[in-house]
Design a protein that fits this description.
This protein has about 525 residues and is an alpha+beta fold. Helices cover about 50% and strands about 15% of the residues.
Length: about 525
Amino acid sequence: MKGQLMASEENEKQAKTGNKKSSEKKSNNKQAKTTLKKTIKNPFVYIGTIIILVLTIIAFVLIPSISSGTSASGKIPSFGSWNGNPIQYTSGSYFAEQVSQINDYLRQQGLDETQSQLYAYQVWRLAYQNTVIRTAILDSAKRSGMKISEETIDEEVSKNSQFQVDGKFSLEKYNSTSAATRLSIRNRIREDMLIQNYYNDLMSASPSTAEIEFVASMAKPQRAIQYVNISYADFPAEETLEWAKSHESLFRTIGLSKITISTSEKDAKKVLAQIKANSLSFEDAAKSHSKDIYADKGGDMGTRTFYDLKSEFLDEKDAENLMSLKKGEISPVYKQTGNTWAFYQINSESSPPDFSKQSVLDEVKSYIFDREKSVLESWALAKANELKADTMNTSFESAAKKNGLQVKSAGPFILNYGNPGFYFYGQQVSLFQEPYRSLDTDLVGAVENETFLTTLFSTPKDAVSEPVLLDASVVVMKVTEDSEASDQEASYTKFSYPYFFQTAMENHIRNSILSSEKFKDNFNTTFAKLFMAN
């Protein structure tokens, strides 16, 4: 009877609903937040809100609010749309509540609200994406014919704290609340329950027992190894010198001053003509006309190395031409990167590198590591292959000693590429339980390297592997031990995989929505118009 009365009253008064008063808005906001806090206890309902916060660890700065939810033109700004439905920020909207909720969360974490506006952008972007997800799910639920009965909504309304007196529903308090506020609360409850039902249906899909057993079995094989690590940092000095001599021209140096003009080639030539006519000194011209970091120093660039200098030129021949000029000469105007024009004054002529200086050889080695890494890879691979060849006639340890390499031990490893995991009530949980293992720093990146793990688990026990390229070294290993995790250790994965499965489904849905053709994203433009100018 109570439910029928509440539903009929809403039907009668819906058409009479007028403009909301400010007191009604406050009541609506308070109730909506109460409902949100109540339903968010399900960690899968509002996916992404806490998960992404944990991942990004961002701070938030309060930024100017949108007055009455409208832009300067009087229209409610749209940040985008889903299937034609605009995503707007208005007072009391889900979008607004998300911004407030994220801000409150960050305050609880002790983060400072006086950070740069970039952090505000991230918070608003996350709130916006959560709103898009909600809009898309509601659209899908309604299109599929999913409904919530008025009786069910009545039941939820009766539990609402706003209508409670001494822990019981008060019809008098309910009736004294404006029709507009009651309708808003009912609509929010309806939407929240549609979202809840959507995820309940999603969570009803679960992996089969066979699938869980298969995934758990992936964590059982464990392997320990002996290995040698041939680091690029050990590239021999004599090899560095040999390479340097064959690329000597890269390391020539020259002393220069520079004037950069950003307007046009014609303007650059005008400034150059004034200098050549002695009506303006090079230093004064740099200070008054140049648009680069050397302007305040009268254009003085100091000494530059050719390999670094040539990157400024669109045509390397121009850089070579510059290197051929004599002290005191001024170059012609060159078109350069960044749509600029520049000319130079030679302060000291080009000179060859002095490879007897350790500082020069260090620069060469740094250049090779940054720009010619294949040189280091070829050297390390050749050394690794020599080691592997030697193991055909002697032990791994003896072959390593012969080649001046140190044998180390590591493991056990499991086949855990990428360390898949999921978030469970705000905590990151791994799908597989990694065994404790000894691991030197030179193999830290190896556990994330697909080639390393593939080679490790495809090499027979007691055999020596093929060389494996890591980020800054080459590894050769020998499998010394094969074992299997206990059933108790495997049970961890059996327990965690259904949660991982559900998280993967949620992420798939989220990514599918945010990459859908139905989603029109205009967030950056709208955000910039509304806030960047403040």
